[in-house]
Design goal:
With about 130 residues, this protein is mostly helical. It has six helices and no strands. The protein has one domain.
Length: about 130
């Protein structure tokens, strides 16, 4: 149980830091390398601002900063952590087998999301 609990504690500490330090303010976080080099938003650009907004209860702003983080990244991460903890609690090993179709779907979604969010005037995650 030590490993999932340490991972959960690390996640809570990270969330506490993001809660206290607004990613919109300069100086707390490094910039996205892709954004710096190309001016384009990557699939995860705006994720810290989305997490900060969620932690402050502003779901609409979180979706505007990065919808993929709100609807996919954070829920999947939480589900994996819960599954890992439950399996370890039961004394069983935890492993995840991701089918090829799911990997292909996630990569396709990330590419489409990246293209769409870089088109001027598009909603849902384009405010990164």
């Amino acid at each position: 149980m030590r490993a999932p609990l340490l991972a959960a504690a690390g996640g809570l500490l990270a969330c506490g830091y993001v809660y206290l330090n607004d990613p919109s303010e300069p100086g707390f976080y490094p910039p996205c390398p892709l954004k710096v080099m190309t001016g384009l938003d990557c699939p995860l650009c705006g994720s810290l601002r989305a997490t900060h907004a969620l932690l402050h209860g502003d779901v609409a702003a979180a979706i505007d900063f990065n919808a993929m983080t709100v609807f996919i990244v954070l829920p999947v991460t939480l589900a994996l952590l819960v599954g890992w903890t439950v399996q370890r609690w039961r004394g069983k090993p935890f492993s995840v087998t991701v089918p090829r179709w799911a990997t292909a779907a996630l990569v396709t979604l990330a590419v489409v999301f990246t293209v769409v969010r870089n088109v001027p005037g598009m909603p849902w995650g384009s405010a990164a």
